[in-house]
Amino acid sequence: MSLQEKTMKKNLFCSVLICILLSSWTIGAEKTVVVPANKIALFSSGVGFFQHSGTIEGKTRIILEVPANAVNDILKSLIVNDESGEASVVEYNSADSEYKTLRSLKIDLSGNPGLPEILGGMTGETVVVHAPERTEGRIIGVESFRTGEFGNDHALLIATDGRMCSIVFSEISAIEFPDADIAADLIRALDILKKSTHADTKKIEIVCSGTGSRPVAFSYIIPVPVWKTTYRLDVSGEKALFQGWAIVDNGGDFDWSGVLLSLVTGRPVSFIQNLFDPHYVDRPVLPLSIAGGAPAVSYESGFKRYAEEAVSEAYSDMSAPAMAKSALSARDKVTQNSVIDSRMKTAAESVEAGEQFLFTVNAPITVPRQKSAMVPLFNEHVSTKRISVVSSKETRNGSVSHPMLCVEVDNTTGVKIPAGPVTVYDGNLYAGDALLDYLPENERRLIGYGEDLPVTVFRDRASDRELRTVKISRGFLVFSRILLVETSYHIKNSDKRERIILVEHEAAAGFELVSPKKPEEQTSSAYRFRFPVGSGAETVFTVKEEQPVEERIALSGAKSEVYLSYVSTAGIPERIQAALQKAAGFRQQWENAEQDLAAIEREQDDLDATQERIRLNLNAAGRDSQQGKEYLKKLAETDAAIELLSRRKSTAEKKRAEARSVYEAYISNLTLE
């Protein structure tokens, strides 16, 4: 028999085996149902709330198949409402239950084994082998042997009627298991393996144990694609039209058929915790007497800071007609047709939902699995103003740039608008794209969608230091200066229409705004100033800021020439100049005393060197020689000079110490405001 024939016979044997077992084993049918989803709420945090409801009867097992990555969220959030009032049980296979269940069965199919491994692991079990004759016995084991140069086969060893029998696998056509438990475990193992082939999908079963016909509902949270928003803003007409759309994606494994869809904007806390995998922890063994509680903790309160809003004083004296003119939109007064159809009805209603905002689609919606849909959220007229924004962050000193063309939108739509891209239309044409951050109700926001090319901006920046006060405080000379920074924005409007300019000037850390005294509004990092620039006009807008700077100089270590340099510095008051002049005199006396002492010490060093030279000459000539006697005389004269110089040095040291003491006493107590 060839190897190919043996393989075909082996496969036929497996098929026959499964058919025999399936025909000989029956399981009582269990009532199972699938309850469809009828309400879905998608959150901007990346999760979805799914609610299923329907009618069941008697004891029912509700089957819910979900993606594997959703099981942890379902276990964390599942709620079941059965009107029977009886507790429902939720069953599922944990991550390692399939493997452990397979290993626990009387026939082990874990690890995708072949027939030799399956039968080899059933030593002692009774089997009926058709090869082709019927043989019944107990399994001893499986042995392997070679067939030819490259062939390989196995033989089943069984004990029957007090003897051992070897049956070659290639001759076996079928195997039966008289033990009903083994046959049942085989069916169970095959069911488990069938489910495990769908690794991306997990089955959760909700067992409702009530009686009679009754409604049931259950809900849960699972991860879903984030729903997105996109907007259209048409400023072509006298009244701008603002339109919002929502994009939803059904990335799940079942269709959304006739569901009530809600879209929720907000930032709830959302996380994943691994509840699906079994966890085992090492626990310490403690004496029975141990007891206690969790440690107490406290949390600090949180505070928010809000920027003050004030009208810029630089333009508060504008007349009422001028103010009205500056508030006009730069668009033509002639009414134009809008690109967006203002008659389009939105498909969603909006409402507050706790601290979040909820859009609910008016009619049931159907979105097939792995499909997406766009739903209109709102379509409202809003108040807008055209504004050209000059940002200090975007302009450089000495270079020409253009301001950003913006639309200031008042959110009068009655809804909280999530962040998203905005497509702007003007004059019945596409005008540009913009990004919109989260916009609460009744708040105003700038939307920038292009550069205002007819308007040019040139910025220059200058700084200077101005001496404000000088004082002496306990031995320190303190200069209080002001660092002045002046930023000028040169703006030229070459267009035939007036522009409303908004200068967004970055607020430098440590600096205080001097002019204009108050901005129109302030962000977390910038001041905003608004003013008009007429057609063909040029203007210079200047922002002045100052920062106090203090310089402290320790006088105790200063030389007399340093004092004299400060005395001649402009801006120092006369009384401080006089004090510095006096301090310079005391310092000069100390320096003079040091110079006198240094001169004596140099002279002493010379005498010491002379004395040493005489001693060397004396030793060479001898004391009794004529020359030696002369050296002795010179040595005596040098000793007398050194003695006199020592008395002078002592006097000079006292004089230096007195001069230093006088100086330091004067400096340490010197304080002048």
Largest sheet descriptor: 8 strands, mixed
Structural class: alpha+beta
Tally the helices.
9
**Strand element count:** 34
**Cα Rg:** 48 Å
**Proportion of residues in extended strands:** 35-45%
Shape: flat
Summarize model confidence as the mean pLDDT: 78
Unreliably modeled segments: 1-30, 288-336
Describe this structure in words.
It is a single chain. The strands form 6 sheets. Strands 2, 3, 5, 13, 16, 17, 18 and 19 form an 8-stranded mixed β-sheet that branches. A 6-stranded mixed β-sheet has the order 26-23-21-29-32-31, with no helix packed on it. Strands 22, 27, 28, 30, 33 and 34 form a 6-stranded antiparallel β-sheet that branches. The chain is of the alpha+beta class and 673 residues long. Among the domains are: 3-223, no CATH class; 560-672. The chain has 9 helices and 34 strands. β31 and β32 form a beta hairpin. 25% of the residues lie in helices and 40% in strands.
